[in-house]
Amino acid sequence: MKKNFGMLLLFLLLGWMAGAWIAKALQPVKAVAILTKATTIRWSPQADLDIISYDISFQFQMSLLSLIGIIAAVWLYRRL
Questions:
Q1: Which InterPro entries match (predicted)?
Q2: Cβ count near 42 (within 10 Å)
Q3: What is the pLDDT of residue 58?
Q4: N or C end: fewer C-beta atoms under 10 angstroms in the chain?
Q5: Which stretches of the chain are DSSP H helices?
């Protein structure tokens, strides 16, 4: 089976989402607080060029469990 970039992106997104969902489910458990604490990454490009202006905002939540999910997704993708 030929691997492609789109499939890798899908695996990465699904791994990130699975890790984030697990982190959200485990937030009440104090023993794993270091794994579930999320850091917010924001990027807000904007410009006003007189004839066109834009203001886009991206926000990403990353926790250690999300990172583990991404690593697991890459591992699974390579095993295909």
A1: DUF4321
A2: 8
A3: 94
A4: N
A5: 5-25, 33-36, 64-79
Number of domains in the chain: 1
Q: Is 2 contained in some domain? A: no
In a domain, 68, yes or no: yes
Identity of the amino acid at 58: F
Question: How confident is the model over 20-52, as pLDDT tens digits?
Answer: 999 999 999 999 999 999 999 999 999 999 999
Residue 74 lies in a domain: yes
How many of the other CB atoms lie within 10 Å of CB of 23? 23
Give which of 62, 61, 64 is closest to 32, Cα–Cα. 64
Residue 76's identity, in one-letter code, is L
Percent of the chain scoring above 70 in pLDDT? 98
Residue 5, domain member (yes or no): no
pLDDT in the model for residue 3:
74
- pTM of the full predicted structure? 0.79
